[in-house]
């Protein structure tokens, strides 16, 4: 069935869509959907664009950026991993020009790409783009480890890494695949990656406000985002990271309209219909993941070509519906844990297909959970202070087993706190997660966990210190064997 779906998608993508749309999606209808979503979630700001055929149905911004400025259709926002579609396109352009062969080893065009694992010499360009290179978060900590400043540095940092699987035998979503691909574009073209995208993608499509950034420090205020503890937007900086090639593109609703139209009309001015088909062709190993795009179906069963993007403080989503000619892109300035871009986009897609839109997401449950955890954190602080006072006033002398058990219970929250990122990594199917990133995923929970860890250690130290003082000669402290 996957190959039948792929064939249908390629045929539809190669020529303008002519199918009648079941829903009458208008600018006013899109506005209403966005307003409802923002009212239900408190989403601070979002940019939305919908195209159909060669026309822009609607491109607009709503709300405000973290610096308080209104978001418009020309406000640059982070598209996160949607950037992979741009990087893959750049590589396919080079392949069409005869400078790169997709099924040749990467090292043939990028000799600096070396790894500790000898199998890496066989990684092909295509395997980078469809995420079957064998590189994985499980063998290289791209997110939590040291961060590069340039694409060259990022590729050099891969030298001590190993592979989790032989190239071409397993699929694993791993951002360094696209970092290497972007560096390949730089070396083969002789241009910085940002310059190449400007000259060969953005300029031909008249995406005049689009660019690409290397690190979090390069993000303009409009491309930063928020967390939502207790349901209130809190502007926070993106964690230190390097994202060019895999997640560094900054774009606007107006510019993304041009990008979506090109995707629905044979590649427009940037790639041939054959190249566009190449970008949308997965392999049996990669499953539904092609080259910077994923193949799926909508809730109504129509084929959709899509890619989501997640930063810690913002999200993005793009979709092309070949059967109806619609294109949708959403950039939201809340973090990955809230999923606003994908949720809102799927609501718009349902409306475009004339389907009943899903109910508006509610943050009530999250707000209540945050409130409960914050109240628990306050209780933990008060209880810990009481424990310290009791240790000072009535030190207890226990046997070694009871003392050890008591201290173990008090120190357990610290151990959980220090290892929580490994638990989250396991829940996220092995994706690399750093300890500080947990404050972006679960800010109030981490406040509670840290309060428990600090409180437990403080009480444990107080018990040890004042127990020793109470048993030291000449201290004159009365030991109470019945104090808890």
From TrEMBL:
Alphabetized InterPro entries for the sequence: AmpC-like, Beta-lactam-related, Beta-lactam/transpept-like
Stretches that traverse the bilayer: 365-385, 405-428, 440-466
GO molecular function: hydrolase activity
Domain Beta-lactamase-related: 30-350
A Pfam family annotated for this UniProt entry: Beta-lactamase
E.C. designation(s): 3.-.-.-
EC main group: hydrolase
Signal peptide (residue range): 1-19
The entry's keywords: Hydrolase, Membrane, Signal, Transmembrane, Transmembrane helix
Name under which the protein is recorded: Serine hydrolase domain-containing protein
Organism: Allokutzneria oryzae
Organism phylogeny: Bacteria, Bacillati, Actinomycetota, Actinomycetes, Pseudonocardiales
């Amino acid at each position: 069935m996957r190959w039948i779906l792929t064939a249908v998608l390629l045929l539809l993508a190669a020529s303008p869509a002519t199918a009648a749309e079941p829903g009458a999606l208008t600018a006013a209808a899109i506005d209403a959907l966005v307003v409802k979503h923002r009212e239900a979630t408190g989403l601070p700001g979002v940019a939305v664009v919908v195209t159909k055929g060669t026309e822009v149905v609607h491109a607009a911004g709503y709300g405000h950026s973290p610096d308080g400025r209104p978001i418009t259709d020309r406000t640059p926002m982070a598209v996160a991993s949607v950037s992979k579609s741009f990087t893959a396109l750049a590589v396919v352009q080079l392949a069409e020009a005869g400078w790169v062969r997709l099924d040749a080893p990467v090292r043939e065009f990028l000799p600096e790409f070396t790894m500790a694992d000898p199998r890496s010499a066989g990684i092909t360009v295509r395997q980078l783009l469809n995420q079957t290179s064998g590189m994985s978060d499980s063998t290289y900590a791209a997110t939590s480890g040291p961060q590069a400043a340039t694409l060259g540095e990022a590729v050099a940092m891969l030298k001590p890494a190993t592979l989790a699987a032989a190239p071409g035998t397993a699929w694993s979503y791993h951002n360094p695949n696209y970092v290497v691909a972007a560096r390949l574009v730089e070396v083969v073209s002789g241009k910085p990656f940002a310059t190449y995208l400007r000259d060969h993608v953005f300029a031909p499509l008249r995406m005049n406000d689009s660019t690409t950034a290397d690190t979090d420090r390069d993000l303009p205020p409009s491309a930063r985002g928020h967390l939502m503890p207790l349901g209130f937007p809190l502007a926070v900086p993106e964690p230190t990271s390097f994202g060019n090639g895999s997640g560094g593109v900054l774009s606007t609703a107006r510019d993304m309209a041009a990008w979506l139209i090109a995707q629905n009309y044979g590649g427009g001015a940037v790639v041939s219909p054959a190249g566009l088909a190449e970008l949308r062709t997965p392999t049996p190993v990669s499953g539904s993941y092609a080259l910077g795009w994923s193949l799926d179906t909508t809730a109504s069963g129509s084929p959709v070509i899509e890619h989501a993007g997640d930063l810690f403080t913002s999200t993005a989503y793009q979709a092309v519906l070949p059967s109806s000619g619609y294109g949708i892109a959403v950039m939201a300035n809340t973090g990955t844990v809230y999923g606003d871009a994908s949720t809102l986009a799927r609501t718009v897609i349902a409306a475009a297909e004339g389907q009943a839109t899903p109910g508006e997401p509610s943050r009530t449950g999250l707000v209540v959970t945050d409130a409960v955890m914050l109240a628990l954190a306050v209780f933990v602080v008060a209880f810990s202070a009481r424990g310290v006072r009791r240790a000072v006033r009535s030190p207890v002398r226990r046997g070694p087993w009871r003392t050890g058990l008591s201290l173990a219970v008090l120190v357990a929250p610290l151990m959980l706190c220090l290892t929580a990122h490994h638990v989250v990594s396991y829940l996220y199917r092995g994706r690399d997660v750093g300890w500080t990133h947990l404050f972006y995923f679960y800010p109030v929970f981490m406040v509670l966990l840290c309060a428990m860890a600090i409180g437990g250690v403080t009480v444990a130290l107080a018990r040890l210190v004042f127990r020793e003082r109470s048993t030291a000669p000449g201290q004159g402290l009365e030991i109470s064997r019945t104090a808890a």
